[in-house]
């Protein structure tokens, strides 16, 4: 249900006695920000990016597509977004997919059964023709035929049969990375994997990811999603900057597909001498051979340890080892930062001790029985 309706705020939208608008609405559901009821709470299509585009259908009123009180199975777009119909039916009530201009615009690819909003924002786009701002270069340049063959039986046909082979035509560096690295993301055990995470066309997110980064990772990693909602203390790089600060998304030579060995990874931010890598990019903090870029002042708020990079001892107190020994609580593993700290989140304290306690005593006792 639309949130203000669910909250029973009937009179934010309706005047119970009289109104010049239909349905006793206090304002109409069309027009610009000063008159449109919907735009008192939403800013849909009000500001359009310089190179962007705005849907002329907005001028016909929000109620052209939305039916505010419509509710039903929230798994369906029609009900989740209170629409008069789901896409593509909604769009095809005004746009004739057989028209010559629309066919040309889509390089004669069949669109009548596609999700139009996988490429078009229904309201306004960061790029021309209501398309999203983070576009894959061959899509932005409209080289549809680099990936598409002429449709067969009115169905999409892809070069190389689609799948990973298609992407590797132009991304041989990723292909060799996946073929040669010691640790390959388990997701590549599935057949058609690049498009699990990337749209081949355009999206609203960097690297044309299909969802915002953290939500994307959590869509398969329920454990981290659960940590994000249930743990009191979250490690900022994990849930703010995002998972790929530490994990390579495709493949790497380090266990857990980390971007470096665990201690080197953590010390890149927490060592007393951590300062990022030299680069031609002074506005950004550059880490891990240029694969990670964060705002230039990112390290200003980070707690520094009395350890320099490469140190093997001196934390949590003088002379205490942080590597080079076995972990007595888990003798198979070497002693590293994660012998004592969770890398993602914790409940006991901000320190995210693996014992989930506030005090460090149970932690010491874990190894020093
Ligand atoms: C966010 C604004 C908003 C709120 C809040 C809201 N309405 Fe509405 N209401 C509308 C709009 C817009 C319409 C026009 C039809 C449509 O879009 O569903 C409407 C139509 C109606 C109608 C006539 C059409 C129909 O669906 O039968 C009734 C009755 C109604 N609303 C009752 C309520 C009641 C009762 C509440 C409080 C529980 C409420 N509304 C809260 C916006 C609102
Ligand atoms: C009183 C403020 C208010 C008004 C007026 C209002 N909305 Fe909303 N609307 C909200 C809030 C709050 C949400 C929930 C936002 C969120 O979860 O991020 C929402 C969510 C939505 C959603 C997303 C689906 C959902 O239910 O979460 C749609 C679609 C929507 N509104 C359309 C409209 C339209 C169309 C109108 C005009 C008829 C309108 N709204 C008027 C406050 C309002
Ligand atoms: C051409 C049809 C159309 C018109 C006109 C339209 N919408 Fe939408 N709107 C949609 C569709 C389709 C979605 C679902 C998008 C999705 O699946 O992500 C949507 C989603 C939304 C959402 C939730 C997602 C988001 O983008 O925040 C809000 C809020 C919303 N519309 C508000 C409005 C308001 C306000 C107006 C009027 C200014 C309006 N819409 C006019 C088609 C339309
Ligand atoms: C109520 C009618 C209506 C509906 C429904 C509608 N459109 Fe439109 N659309 C228009 C009009 C009018 C224009 C501007 C005239 C034109 O270019 O045909 C337009 C233009 C466009 C454009 C070209 C924008 C530009 O910058 O030139 C795209 C893309 C588009 N619509 C996509 C969609 C999609 C996707 C949907 C479904 C979510 C949709 N339309 C639903 C009426 C509609
Ligand atoms: C694979 C991505 C994709 C999908 C899916 C898609 N479109 Fe488009 N559409 C585009 C691109 C790209 C353009 C702009 C081409 C150009 O540069 O002229 C476009 C242009 C348009 C235009 C403007 C045509 C013109 O006259 O300039 C309309 C209208 C439109 N699309 C509607 C739709 C509708 C309706 C659907 C769903 C039935 C849909 N599109 C599905 C990518 C897509
Ligand atoms: C980099 C390769 C690539 C380029 C360039 C590309 N496509 Fe696609 N397209 C794909 C793949 C792969 C799919 C299969 C759907 C998927 O996996 O997401 C697809 C699917 C589609 C679909 C069906 C979408 C759906 O939601 O079912 C349409 C329509 C489409 N492409 C149109 C276009 C148009 C029009 C262009 C040029 C403006 C274009 N594509 C450029 C790779 C590409
Ligand atoms: C026809 C050549 C071509 C094909 C096929 C192709 N790409 Fe690309 N892709 C490019 C070019 C050119 C760039 C920009 C230069 C670069 O980063 O390598 C790019 C960049 C990217 C980027 C980085 C975008 C950014 O913002 O930096 C991703 C992610 C990507 N492609 C994914 C894919 C996926 C997934 C496929 C398969 C569905 C694919 N590509 C197929 C040509 C292609
Ligand atoms: C599990 C999700 C996921 C899968 C599957 C995936 N990627 Fe990525 N990819 C990402 C993320 C996230 C980034 C952004 C990297 C970052 O933030 O450092 C990225 C970045 C990229 C880039 C640009 C940066 C670079 O390393 O060159 C390219 C190109 C790319 N991916 C291609 C591909 C190809 C080709 C495939 C299929 C073999 C693929 N991706 C499969 C998540 C994925
Ligand atoms: C489409 C599903 C999917 C998505 C999206 C996804 N993963 Fe995975 N991930 C997997 C699978 C499957 C495994 C293997 C699980 C296993 O072996 O238990 C895995 C394993 C992992 C592992 C364990 C070490 C390894 O390589 O086996 C890490 C770390 C990881 N993923 C991080 C990420 C990050 C970071 C993202 C977001 C960029 C992400 N994943 C997105 C499916 C996914
Ligand atoms: C600060 C660095 C860092 C960030 C950011 C980070 N991780 Fe990790 N992650 C690690 C380390 C270190 C390990 C290995 C822990 C071990 O060996 O005990 C790990 C392990 C994992 C594993 C393997 C299973 C497990 O829990 O041991 C998965 C899956 C995973 N991470 C997913 C994610 C996801 C999803 C995100 C984003 C929400 C994320 N990580 C963000 C450092 C990080
Ligand atoms: C990209 C930089 C970065 C990396 C890499 C990183 N951290 Fe952090 N860490 C932060 C930031 C930012 C904070 C929040 C500010 C603060 O409290 O230091 C933080 C906070 C912490 C805290 C809580 C400090 C407190 O407030 O008591 C601990 C413990 C911690 N990190 C451990 C680790 C461990 C263990 C690793 C390696 C698995 C790691 N960090 C890797 C940036 C990083
Ligand atoms: C033997 C267990 C142990 C190991 C190994 C360990 N830590 Fe700690 N860490 C602690 C304890 C205990 C504290 C709390 C110290 C205190 O309260 O003075 C702490 C505190 C911290 C803090 C917060 C410091 C502050 O000033 O508040 C950070 C950040 C941190 N550790 C990061 C790391 C990193 C990075 C590594 C790996 C190089 C690491 N830790 C290895 C036990 C450990
Ligand atoms: C993950 C296991 C682990 C935890 C937790 C741990 N230690 Fe240790 N500690 C070690 C190891 C391994 C050594 C080195 C023993 C050796 O040299 O054989 C060590 C050595 C020490 C030493 C001797 C240092 C020196 O001067 O040589 C002291 C004192 C000590 N720990 C105190 C603590 C305290 C206090 C805590 C809790 C804050 C703690 N440890 C937590 C593993 C741990």
Notes on the protein architecture:
The structure is a single chain. The chain is α+β, with helices and mostly antiparallel strands. The chain has 3 domains: 122 residues, no CATH class; 79 residues, no CATH class; 157 residues, no CATH class. The protein binds heme C (HEC) (13 copies). One heme C binds next to helix 8 and helix 9.
**Helix amount, in percent?**
10-25%
Mean pLDDT: 95
The proportion of residues in beta strands is 5-15%
The distinct ligands, each listed once, are: heme C
Number of strands: 12
Report the total helices.
13
Order of helices and strands: HEHHHEEHEEHHEHEHHEHEHEEEH
Overall 3D shape: globular
Structural class of the secondary structure composition?
alpha+beta
Instruction: Give the oligomer, counting copies of the same chain as homo and different chains as hetero.
Output: single chain
Query: Which runs of at least 5 residues are low in confidence (pLDDT < 50)?
Result: none
C-alpha Rg, in Å? 26 Å
Which strand order does the major sheet show? 1-2
Largest sheet: 2 strands, antiparallel
How many individual domains? 3
Distance between the termini: 56 Å
């Amino acid at each position: 249900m639309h949130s203000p309706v669910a909250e029973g705020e009937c009179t934010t939208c309706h005047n119970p006695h009289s109104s010049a608008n239909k349905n006793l609405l206090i304002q109409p559901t069309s027009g610009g920000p000063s008159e449109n009821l919907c735009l008192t709470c939403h800013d849909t299509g009000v500001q359009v990016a310089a190179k962007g585009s705005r849907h002329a259908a907005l001028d016909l009123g929000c109620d052209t597509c939305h039916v505010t009180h419509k509710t039903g199975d929230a798994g369906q777009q029609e009900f989740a977004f209170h629409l008069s119909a789901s896409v593509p039916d909604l769009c095809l009530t005004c746009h004739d997919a057989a028209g010559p201009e629309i066919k040309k615009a889509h390089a004669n690819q069949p669109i009548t059964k596609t999700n139009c909003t996988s490429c078009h924002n229904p309201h306004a786009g960061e790029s021309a023709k209501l398309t999203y701002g983070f576009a894959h270069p061959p899509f932005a340049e409209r080289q549809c035929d680099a990936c598409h063959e002429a449709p067969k039986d009115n169905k999409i046909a892809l070069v190389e049969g689609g799948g990973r082979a298609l992407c590797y035509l132009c991304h041989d560096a990723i292909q060799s990375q996946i073929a040669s690295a010691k640790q390959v993301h388990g997701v590549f055990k599935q057949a058609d994997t690049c498009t699990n995470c990337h749209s081949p066309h355009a999206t609203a997110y960097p690297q044309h990811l299909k969802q915002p980064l953290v939500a994307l990772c959590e869509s398969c990693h329920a454990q981290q999603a659960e940590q994000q909602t249930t743990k009191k203390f979250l490690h900022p790089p994990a849930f703010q900057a995002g998972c790929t600060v530490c994990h390579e998304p495709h493949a790497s030579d380090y266990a857990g597909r980390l971007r470096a060995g665990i201690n080197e990874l953590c010390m890149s931010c927490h060592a007393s001498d951590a300062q990022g890598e030299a680069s031609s990019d002074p506005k950004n903090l550059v880490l891990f051979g240029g694969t990670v870029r964060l705002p230039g002042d990112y390290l200003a708020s980070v707690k520094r340890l009395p350890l320099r990079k490469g140190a093997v001892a001196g934390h949590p107190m003088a002379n205490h080892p942080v590597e080079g020994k076995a972990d007595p609580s888990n003798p198979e593993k070497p002693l590293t930062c994660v012998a004592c700290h969770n890398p993602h989140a914790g409940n006991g304290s901000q320190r995210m001790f693996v014992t989930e306690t506030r005090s460090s005593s149970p932690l010491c006792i874990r190894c020093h029985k």
